[in-house]
Amino acid sequence: MKPAVLHKLPESWSWKSLKRYPELALLCFSLTAVLIGRSLHLPSSPPDMNFGAAALSHYIFPLALAIVVHLRILIRSKSSRRDSVIILGLSIPTLFVVTYCHFQCKVWMPLINPHRFGPVYESVDRLFTPIVGLCGYFVALMDRAGLDVSGAYHGWFILFFFVCFGLHALRDTPTGQRQVILGVGWILALGGVGYWIAPAVGPFIYRNGADSNATLIQNYMWQKFHLLVLTRHIPAGYFLSAPAAMPSLHIAHAAFFVWMLRRMSRGLSLLFLPLLLWFTGTAVGLAWHYILDLPAGFLLAAFVVVLVKKTLPDPEMHESLEPVVADDIAAGELIPA
To answer: What predicted TM-score, i.e. pTM, was given to this entire model?
Structure first.
């Protein structure tokens, strides 16, 4: 028999609510990780202008279409308001909180676990020297062709967010949109804590990548990393510059997006598969990641896909994946299904 006080708790505090709103579980996980760090008296870092700019480029701008669509539904529709309130009031804000927690956990990596597994990962890279050399040659070839490979690595990664968030906002069900946002959040949350398990800075401490711009950035990050370890204070400008290699979250996010695109169109997922392969080779050629970081990223993406599908199941069969017209919005206007 349950204690009487439990019957008086509002539903939002019950396990039923956690099951209905898995975003709350994600939020609790991320905040718990940060609280663990603070309980160990690790330095905290408030968001700065650089973090705000990164949040804008990586999340706010890519999610802008979904935000506009759901704001219009809140104003003009009646039947879909509940879904839009959840996405605007819970899913998207949760993602921003989790993003901050992720970067805080990433900063704490050398303070939580001072052991470095870089030598182990580097020894595996030496076993695959021909593959590492081929990736470096691939990057050098693109560089000679006039492509800013380092800039493209970052820019095309953001493009993935733009395209996937936008397509899901236009073509997917509200549940499908929540799945994508939830999955991105879990990759950030699990990846941030995953850095603590078998940490490594990156292969650039052993070898230079094939792009000089990336090497300059990596040297800057390596110096800041040493300063943090020596002083236990977060250096200025370090919050978004903390190096961490294992697992590769670039690969995890890209693989997750390609997989989730399959719910709408196998052709779309195949269209973006070459970009995923490009990230895989370029990450090694630029000396951002060891060979072992890549399968770890793929495994994380696979785990998150299963986690999202279990905690936020796909819509029932009667829910169409095609866009539908909400009441009093003219046909042809862009709204989510």
So the answer is: 0.83
